[in-house]
Amino acid sequence: MKYIIIIISSIFVNNVVLSQFLGICPFIGVSKKVNTAVGMGAAVLFVMVLATMVTWLIQHYVLDAFGLQFLQTLTFILVIAALVQIVEIVLKKIAPPLYQALGIFLPLITTNCAVLGIAILTIQKEYSLLEGIVYSASIAIGFAFALILSVTLIPAMLYVTPIKVVGKHWKNKNRLSTKIRLRLEHELARRGGKSKDEANASTLYSIYHFFAGTKPRL
Fold first, then answer.
1. How many Å apart are CA 40 and CA 140, to the nearest integer?
2. Is residue 28 classed exposed, middle or buried when 0-12, 13-18 and 19+ CB atoms within 10 A define those classes?
């Protein structure tokens, strides 16, 4: 029962991205394509589980044994950096497209505060090795869940969200096109400002474009 509680709470209740706001950098960087999001989630899962295992062993059998607890953060960072290098080399060999898609965000896992944070939290919560593995794996799954959510559900919600806008160019929403948008922007520039509804529409358009990577077809 304890493991079930850890899994559910880590994925849905205390989600590392949506609740604890850790790992935001890679979340923003790769949250436009499902394949890339899944790849990043898998990489974080691998690194986070291995990092938790290794750091737990180092903490209990090296740092605690020799009274070197003050080196915890430095040691954990070095372990995570080494594991990320291993993941980078493996991906470059077996999955070059995914390696190219992840780009700079793959080595940035080294500085992903979620990986370091979970390794430290596992020690602070006094989990056993098995509990720490389950906890870190659940956190990583929650991270992947948040990534996939950002490229599926959020754009879908924005896709069906009605927009109330003042101006004749926005009345026929079903035929919105780039040409109409350009005409609207020209009209707004001529007026020298935006109404409240127009500003809301522009904001919604920008949010959709950020998450989906494409222009909304309203």
1. 10
2. middle
44 Cβ partners below 8 Å, 6+ apart?
23, 26, 109, 112, 114, 115, 140, 143, 144
Tell me the pLDDT tens digit for each residue of 81-134.
888 888 888 888 888 887 877 776 677 777 678 888 999 999 999 999 999 999
Task: Provide the residue count of the chain.
Answer: 218
| pLDDT tens-place string over residues 55-90 | 999 999 999 999 998 999 999 999 888 888 888 888
3-state DSSP helix/strand/coil percent for the chain, to nearest 5? 80, 0, 20
* Cβ atoms of 115 and 121 closer than 8 Å: no
State the amino acid at position 207 in one-letter form: I
Q: What is the largest CA-CA distance in the chain?
A: 74
